[in-house]
Amino acid sequence: MAYDYEGRMDFRGDTVRALEFARDVLVRRGLKVLPLSGNELHFENPAFVMSTKKDPLLMVSKGVITSTGSALSMQAELGNLRALVKFTALLILALTIPEVAVMAVVFVMVVKDPGLLWICLLTVAPLPFIMPLVSKVQRRKTSRALDALLCGAAEAGGKK
What we know:
alpha+beta, Alpha-D-Glucose-1,6-Bisphosphate, Chain A, domain 4, 4 helices, rod-shaped
């Protein structure tokens, strides 16, 4: 699977210090960090996050930070973000379908004007526009948080 996020910074510093900084940040944020394997730090977030107001790093499902010679790079999958968007879309649809059905019955049986059925579509019409927008905004927030983590690790590794 292709990574959703890939970042790279020029880096000439202490690899161990940089990766330890990243490990500390990730652990404080609640992600599971695997033991260092050479110049790589693997991390994952097995929890499903229900809120986009929490830390954007929690949208990452797994990733790796690698130090190679003159660069510090990070790759991450945003699996939790995809799961959150999918769950939200399904929840909205599950709540909307009964509402649309009741409105249709009211318009046809009670009001006796089937011409008003188009109003039922107004409840679901915004979904194809709103859900991608929510995903894009949260993806941008998560990318910025990952950029900040990578930058912080590079700075921490560069300190003497």
